[in-house]
Design goal:
- By secondary structure, the chain is mainly alpha-helical.
- The radius of gyration is 30 Å and the shape is globular.
Length: 844
C-alpha cells in the first residue's frame, strides 16, 4: 500500500512536466489511440515554442520530395512546397489565360456557374453561415473560451488598437468605401421588394429596410467564416506548434492525411482564392480610386485613358504593398493599417459633424435596433417563393433542368413546356403574354436578389476566408478564444454599422432632397428611380433644376456612379479635403489588403515558414498586380470585363470552401476537446483504417516517418474495388462482427444493402427512357446511405470510437466505398470487453 501511494505521489509530481500523451497514458490502462496517432501535437504549455524560421524544423511537416530549397551562395532564393505552389500557379494562371484568350466565353460561363450555385445552394449558404455564428458563440462562452492561442502566460503580440486596425483593414474596409453608399441606395431606389425582412409599406420603412439589408451583409455573418478559419489555424499552430498553413487546421480531423495530396490541394486552392480575392478588391477599388482622383482634378477620362489610369494605379499600389510586405508585419503592415484606419475614422467623424449629426445618430441607433430585432428572420431568409419563379422561366439553372432542344443560352425545365402547351388552349391565348410572368402574377421581390446580393456576398466572404482568417490567426496570438470571437465578431460589426449607417443615411437624405425638387410630388410607391424624369442623362444632371441643385452639391444619388463622392459635395470647400482623404484612405486600404494577401500567399507556399525569402514576397505581390493588369487590359481589348469574370470565379470557389469550413468546425471542436483532455475523445479508440488514406496511397505515417499501414497496398486497393461494386459484402461482414456470424440481422442488412444498391443502378440505367427514373434511383441510393450511416454509428459505439452521426452521414453520402471499406477492416478488430470509464486508475 505504501509503495502504491509513493508511486501515485511520484506521478502527481511529474504530471505537469510530462507530455500530453504520457499524462494520458498514466491515467488509463489502455493507450489513448485518439491522441496517440496525432504524433505532431506538441502543446505549447509543455514544450518550448517551435521556431519555424528554422527550415530543418519545418521539414518535419513536409513529405520528402515536396520541399524545394534554392540558394545562391548565402542568399536564399526559394523555399517552397513545390506541389501546392505549382498547383496554385497552374490554377491561377489557367484562369487568367482563359480570360485573356476567350474573355467573352469565360464571362458567360463563370456567370452561369455563379447563378447555378446561387439557385441550387442558397439553402446551404444561408444555413452554413448561421451555423458558424452559433458555433462560434457557443465555443466562446463555453469552458473552451478561456483557452489561449499560445502559452497560458503569453501576452498578445499587438495592442488592441493595432490589432483592430489590421483586423478591419484586411477584412472589409475596401468594400465599405466602395459600397457604403451604393448598396443601401440600390435597395432604396432599385425597385427591390424586401418583403420578409420586416415591414416596408411606406418609403420610411423602405429606407430602413435598405439599411437593414446592408447591415446584414456586413454584420455578424460576414465575419463568421473569417473567425472560424482563424480559430482553426490558431489553436493548432499556436497551441500545438504546427506550421501556419491552411492544411494544419484540418489536422485534428484527418491527421496525417494533411501531408498527402489532400493537404496540397487545400493549400493550393487557398493560395488561388486569396489571389482571386485580392483581384476582387482591385476591381472594386481601382475604379473608385481613379474616380476620386478625377473628381479632385475636375476632369473626365475616355475609356482608354481610364484603363491607363487604372493600370498605373495598380502598379503604384503594388509597389507600395511590396515595400510593406518586405518590411514585415510589425514595421509595414501594422503601421500602414493603423494610419489607414485613422484616416477612415477621421472622414467618418467629420461627415458626422458636418451634416445633420442628430439625424445620423438617430439612424444608426434605430438601424442597429432593427438589425438586432430582425437578424434571425433575415438571417434565415432564402427567398424561397421568389426563387420559385426561376423554375417557370428561361433562366432555369435549377439542378435537373434540361437544355436539350432549347435555343442556345436558354435554360428551361419541363414545367415551362407544360404551361406553354396548356396556355395555348385558351380561347384568349396571346403568345407574347401567356403564360403570364411570375413576378406580375405574384408580386414580390426579384428572384435574383439572392444571386445578385446575398449569395454573392457569402461566396465573397468565404473565398476571402483563407486569406483573412490566416491573417487574423497570425495577429491574434496570445489572446483567448473568447477575446477573439467577441473582439473580431462584435467590435468590427458595430464599427461597420456606424460607418454604413452614417454614409448610407446621408445617401438617403440627399436622394430625398433631389426628389423633393425634381420629382412630381407623388409618393414613390415602387421604390424605383426615374432618372430621366429627374433631369438626368447618362448619370449627369441635364435639366436646369438638376444642374442648379448639383451646383449646390446635391444630386439624385440613385442616378449617379460614385455616390460616395456625392454625399460630401454639399460641404463646399471642405469637400475636396475630404475627397483627398477618401482617395488616400481607399488607396491605403487596398494596399493593406494586398500586402496582407501577399503575406498569406507567401507563407502558405512556403508551407508555414515564418521568414520566406524576400524574392518570394516580391513574386506574390507582383503576381497579384500582374493578374489584375492582364485581365483589365485583355478585357478592354475584347470588350469584356475579364477582371469581373475572375471576381466571379472567386465567388464560385466559395462553394467548396463553405464545405471545408463546415468540416473545420468539426476539426476545431476535436482540437479543443483534445487540448482540454476530455475523456470522451482522449480515451477513445480509432478506426483501424482511414476514409481518406486512399489519397495518400494508403500511407498512414507522419510526414517525416515511415508508413504505419497495417495492410498492404494491394489488399486495400482490392477491398476498395469490392466496396465500389459490391458494398453489400462489406456490410454483411461488418454486421456479422456486430450481431454474430450468420445471424439473421447480418443477413437481413446484407440483403437490404444489396437491394438498395441494385435498384439504384437499375433505375439509373432505365432513366434513358424517362429521366424521372433517375430520381427514383437516387432515392434508393439515399436509403443505402442511411443504412451505412446507421451501421457506422453502431460500430463506433461498440468499439468506443469518437465521432458523430453527421460525419457518418456525410461520409456515406459522398464516398460510400471508403466508408464500407473502413467498416470491413474494422470488423476484424476485437471490440473492447470493458467500460474504460469505470476501469480503476493505476500507475502504468
Amino acid at each position: 500500500g505504501a509503495s502504491k501511494g509513493h508511486n501515485r505521489a511520484r506521478v502527481d509530481r511529474l504530471d505537469s512536466r510530462l507530455s500530453y500523451q504520457t499524462r494520458l497514458k498514466a491515467r488509463s490502462l489502455r493507450t489513448p489511440e485518439m491522441v496517440g496517432h496525432l504524433k505532431d501535437i506538441r502543446r505549447c504549455d509543455e514544450h518550448d515554442d517551435v521556431d519555424f524560421r528554422d527550415e530543418n524544423e519545418l521539414k518535419r511537416f513536409v513529405r520528402p520530395g515536396k520541399w524545394l530549397s534554392l540558394s545562391a551562395g548565402s542568399v536564399r532564393l526559394l523555399r517552397i512546397n513545390v506541389v501546392s505552389t505549382g498547383l496554385a500557379i497552374v490554377l491561377l494562371w489557367g484562369f487568367v489565360i482563359w480570360g485573356l484568350v476567350k474573355p467573352r466565353y469565360m464571362n458567360a460561363q463563370v456567370n452561369e456557374w455563379k447563378s447555378w450555385i446561387s439557385y441550387n445552394f442558397t439553402w446551404f449558404y444561408i444555413g452554413a453561415f448561421n451555423a458558424w455564428i452559433v458555433f462560434l458563440l457557443y465555443v466562446a462562452f463555453s469552458k473552451y473560451g478561456k483557452i489561449k492561442l499560445g502559452r497560458a502566460d503569453e501576452k498578445p503580440e499587438f495592442n488592441n488598437v493595432s490589432w483592430f486596425s489590421m483586423l478591419f483593414s484586411c477584412g472589409i474596409a475596401v468594400g465599405v468605401y466602395t459600397l457604403g453608399v451604393a448598396e443601401p441606395m440600390s435597395y432604396y431606389r432599385g425597385s427591390y421588394g424586401l418583403q420578409g425582412r420586416g415591414d416596408a409599406p411606406t418609403d420610411d420603412e423602405r429606407a430602413q429596410q435598405a439599411l437593414l439589408q446592408t447591415f446584414y451583409h456586413w454584420g455578424l455573418h460576414a465575419w463568421g467564416p473569417y473567425i472560424t478559419v482563424a480559430l482553426g489555424l490558431g489553436i493548432v499552430c499556436y497551441r500545438w506548434n504546427m506550421p501556419l498553413t491552411m492544411r494544419s487546421a484540418f489536422y485534428p480531423l484527418i491527421g496525417n492525411i494533411i501531408y498527402s495530396p489532400v493537404g496540397d490541394i487545400i493549400d493550393a486552392v487557398s493560395i488561388a482564392c486569396t489571389t482571386f480575392g485580392v483581384c476582387t478588391s482591385l476591381g472594386l477599388g481601382v475604379d473608385q480610386i481613379v474616380a476620386y482622383y478625377a473628381a479632385l482634378q475636375d476632369k473626365s477620362y475616355s475609356a482608354l485613358e481610364r484603363l491607363d489610369a487604372q493600370t498605373a494605379t495598380i502598379i503604384v499600389m503594388t509597389l507600395v504593398a511590396n515595400i510593406s510586405v518586405v518590411l514585415g508585419l510589425h514595421k509595414g503592415i501594422q503601421v500602414l493599417s493603423t494610419i489607414t484606419f485613422s484616416l477612415g475614422l477621421f472622414v467618418l467623424i467629420a461627415t458626422l459633424f458636418l451634416d445633420n449629426t442628430w439625424y445620423l445618430l438617430n439612424s444608426v441607433v434605430q438601424s442597429t435596433g432593427h438589425y438586432l430585432q430582425y437578424v434571425v428572420q433575415i438571417g434565415f431568409r432564402t427567398d424561397s417563393f421568389e426563387q420559385l419563379g426561376i423554375e417557370f422561366g428561361t433562366k432555369n439553372l435549377l439542378w435537373g433542368s434540361n437544355k436539350a432542344s432549347k435555343p442556345d443560352g436558354v435554360w428551361s425545365g419541363p414545367i415551362l413546356d407544360v404551361m406553354n402547351n396548356a396556355a395555348a388552349q385558351r380561347t384568349d391565348y396571346n403568345s407574347s403574354t401567356m403564360p403570364f410572368a411570375y413576378g406580375d402574377a405574384f408580386p414580390s421581390g426579384p428572384a435574383q436578389m439572392m444571386d445578385w446580393w446575398t449569395i454573392f456576398y457569402w461566396g465573397w466572404w468565404v473565398s476571402w476566408a483563407p486569406f483573412v482568417g490566416m491573417f487574423i490567426a497570425r495577429i491574434s496570438r496570445g489572446r483567448t478564444i473568447r477575446q477573439i470571437v467577441v473582439g473580431a465578431l462584435v467590435a468590427p460589426t458595430l464599427f461597420s454599422f456606424l460607418w454604413l449607417g452614417v454614409w448610407g443615411s446621408l445617401g438617403i437624405k440627399m436622394q430625398r432632397v433631389a426628389e423633393l425638387v425634381l420629382g412630381d410630388g407623388t409618393p414613390n410607391t415602387s421604390g424605383g428611380s426615374d432618372c430621366s424624369g429627374w433631369g438626368y442623362v447618362d448619370k449627369v444632371p441635364d435639366s436646369a433644376a438638376a444642374v442648379a441643385l448639383a451646383n449646390d452639391g446635391y444630386y439624385a444619388v440613385a442616378c449617379r456612379s460614385y455616390p460616395m463622392l456625392d454625399i460630401m459635395a454639399p460641404f463646399k470647400e471642405v469637400k475636396e479635403f475630404l475627397w483627398g482623404l477618401l482617395l488616400v484612405g481607399i488607396t491605403l486600404y487596398f494596399i493593406t489588403s494586398s500586402d496582407s494577401g501577399s503575406y498569406v500567399d507567401d507563407v502558405i507556399s512556403a508551407n508555414g515558414l515564418a521568414n520566406p525569402p524576400i524574392g518570394q514576397k516580391v513574386f506574390w505581390c507582383w503576381t497579384d498586380g500582374a493578374v489584375a493588369i492582364a485581365l483589365l487590359r485583355g478585357g478592354y481589348e475584347s470588350g469584356q470585363n475579364a477582371l469581373g469574370a475572375v471576381q466571379t470565379v472567386s465567388i464560385v470557389a466559395g462553394l467548396p470552401f463553405t464545405v471545408a469550413i463546415c468540416f473545420m468546425c468539426t476539426s476545431i471542436w476535436r482540437a479543443l476537446k483534445i487540448d482540454s483532455g476530455d475523456a470522451d475523445i482522449c480515451h477513445a479508440n480509432m478506426f483501424s483504417t482511414g476514409t481518406l488514406d486512399i489519397f495518400d496511397l494508403y500511407r498512414t505515417g507522419p510526414a517525416d516517418g515511415p508508413s504505419t499501414a497495417r495492410y498492404t497496398f494491394a489488399e486495400r486497393l482490392t477491398n476498395y474495388a469490392q466496396s465500389i461494386f459490391a458494398p453489400f459484402i462489406g456490410i454483411f461482414k461488418t454486421c456479422e462482427s456486430l450481431f454474430g456470424g450468420g445471424s439473421v440481422l447480418a443477413v437481413l442488412h446484407g440483403v437490404v444493402n444489396f437491394s438498395f444498391f441494385i435498384l439504384w443502378l437499375v433505375f439509373l440505367i432505365v432513366s434513358g427512357s424517362d429521366s424521372d427514373y433517375a430520381w427514383i434511383g437516387w432515392t434508393f441510393y439515399m436509403f443505402m446511405v442511411f443504412q451505412i450511416s446507421f451501421i457506422r454509428g453502431y460500430v463506433r459505439t461498440k468499439h468506443n470510437i469518437y465521432g458523430n452521426m453527421f460525419e457518418d452521414f456525410f461520409g456515406a453520402l459522398v464516398m460510400y466505398p471508403n466508408i464500407v471499406s473502413q467498416l470491413h477492416y474494422q470488423s476484424k478488430e476485437p471490440a473492447p470487453s470493458n467500460d474504460v470509464y469505470r476501469k480503476p486508475v493505476t500507475v502504468a
